[in-house]
């Protein structure tokens, strides 16, 4: 029988948002797994991939095994997946196990469901290299901060009433429509929320940059005067703007839930769920 447990050399992704050098948990894991690896102190180490993804198939470090990569080994030994998984996923490993080390915020994104993922893979394989949907389970190794899913409508309405720069981008008609929508009409709330978020994300660039600069200036002045800026989510707004000045994504903090996790806590991100990892 071939060895069932063997060491892997896993792919590292050096995206610019990753923590740098040995501040990164990814770098620490890489160094602990291979003493010959030299961690570059000024290099971001953002993601460690443990799986069979075509852009980062893990290498096998065991001379007893003829296959060079984990993907090749799974293809030659599909029974390792168990009969149910093997049959359901045509002999492929159905997940990609990652460790992320986030220094600056990632962009807001939403992963397609299975049907749309297959369609996008067929149409744009260079951008969607596989046909799988991408639900995620994020488990915190350190204190972690992210955004996931839309806030309760009451919170969004409160921001629309306390952040005039946001209301200017949404427009009075859309803002009032959301304010009038009631919790007893989830379809009405969903439709009004869709209009508001779409208007935000399709704002003309000069207009939203001007509004964002006005908001940052106002919150900075209020903070300097010792005022409470929590009604405008001031601390997070200033932090994100310092990382990505002039970015429309700064306004998404008024629509998406802010989630803070302690080590061992987790959150699930389903298909079509807007989310962004912020730090940790």
Quick take:
By secondary structure, the chain is α+β, with helices and mostly antiparallel strands. It contains 10 helices and 12 strands.
Number of domains: 2
CATH-defined topology of the largest domain: Jelly Rolls
The run of helices and strands is: EEEHEEEHHEHEEHHHHHHEEE
CATH class type of the largest domain: Mainly Beta
Classify the oligomer.
Answer: single chain
Radius of gyration: 22 Å
Shape: globular
Arrangement of strands in the largest sheet: 2-5-7
CATH homologous superfamily descriptor of the largest domain: Jelly Rolls
Number of strands: 12
Helix content: 25-40%
| Proportion of residues in extended strands | 15-25%
**Shape-level CATH architecture of the largest domain:** Sandwich
Q: What's the total helix number? A: 10
Q: Would you tell me the structural class of the helices and strands? A: alpha+beta
The average pLDDT score comes to 93
- Main pleated sheet: 3 strands, antiparallel
Function: Isomerase that catalyzes the interconversion of fructose-6-P and mannose-6-P and has a critical role in the supply of D-mannose derivatives required for many eukaryotic glycosylation reactions.
Organism: Phainopepla nitens (Phainopepla)
Domain Phosphomannose isomerase type I catalytic: 5-153
Keywords: Isomerase, Metal-binding, Zinc
